[in-house]
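Entry 12.
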Amino acid sequence: MYLRRFCLFCCLAGWFLVTLNALNAQGDNWPTWRGPTDNGFAADARYPIEFDKQHHQLWSAAMPAHAGSTPVVWGDRIFVTAVFPGPSDEVPGTNFARCLDMNGKELWTTKLGKERPGKHKKASGSNSSPVTDGKHVFVYFKSGEFACLDFDGQVVWQTNLQERFGEDTLWWDLGTSPVLTRDHVVVAVVQSGPSYLVAFDKATGEIGWKVDRMLDAPEEANQTYSTPVVIDRGAEQILVMLGADHVTAHRASNGQELWRHGGMNPEQNGYFRSIASAVYSDGIVVVPYARGKTLTALDMNGKVVWETDELGSDVPTPAARDGKVYLLTDRGQFICLDIKTGKQVWQTESPKSRQVFSASPIVTSQSAYLAREDGTVYVVDMQGEQHEIKATNELDEFTIATPVLVDGKVLVRTSEALHCFGSN
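Predicted 3D structure (tokens):
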């Protein structure tokens, strides 16, 4: 009995050390658009507070066309997606993935099929952000093209979700990004028509599992641009997906639905499509919905912890950690809530403007970075009692991509370029 317990202890200790080492390794990277821990928080470091094209800019790399995807970073490599424009409006462009080093030098560019242009003036055929596991980078485009590349830009495997499983029926432009579990890379397709989650083996591209997600929601409300959340629950991982007036939880290993929460659209509004994603911390999933009018907190059994119809976020995804959730509204209110109760802790506001916020907030223990669509990046003091805006950085270029904070640098992807700011 003693030997059995000792062996069990050794196994658990080994699992803990592997997990801890993985988290430490990711702390200096930016593997997903929501940061190293997938909750909108950056690793603590000295990041520039005041910056523009004349101050603290280390380099700028031009991009051939606007795209909404957020870059990801692993080590000294930055991965970004976009499109090469076609020669005319009638001729489609080409999807591509690009790798830069941390000095802004292009290392490679890989073309990945024909572009499907964006419909909305803010959008493009490349809104979905890449994701990396440190060995491969996974990219997804509005055309349905989905690919795994190695760090040298070679295609490991490639498929087209629309050719395999049915055409895109979204009214607007693809927004969801792929996510990584221990065994798979997962994509959610929630739309009018065939809706599903599908998991591919990261190394081979073979389908690990595919589950339908056909839920009763009217008109546009059955469509989502949100990204699933991957939650570690001890030895098990759970996928939580928002969309079609429901939140569903799935076992990451096989896609099995564990629970669902509905009733998020009691009046059956036909236009409650979801853009912002859910966020997880402290055993609670926080869900923005109803075009920024509601916020719902669920426990890991799908039960409501608290809910409010007095605030919310339509496009920016909240950040959450250490008992707090940080909500950025489309109009620039930045609000801290207690994640257990939903009670407001503090609030600050950006100056009034016709410009709105689409990028999601990124938070450190010292500062929060809020990027407005006109390229203005506000930096909020997270340590003082007043939580005031301590810097206003104007880049004067359209942006909807979320800022990236890694290795003491701030990366901002705009309609024209990828800019890198840091200490000279």
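Annotation: The radius of gyration is 21 Å. The chain is about 5% helix and 40% strand.
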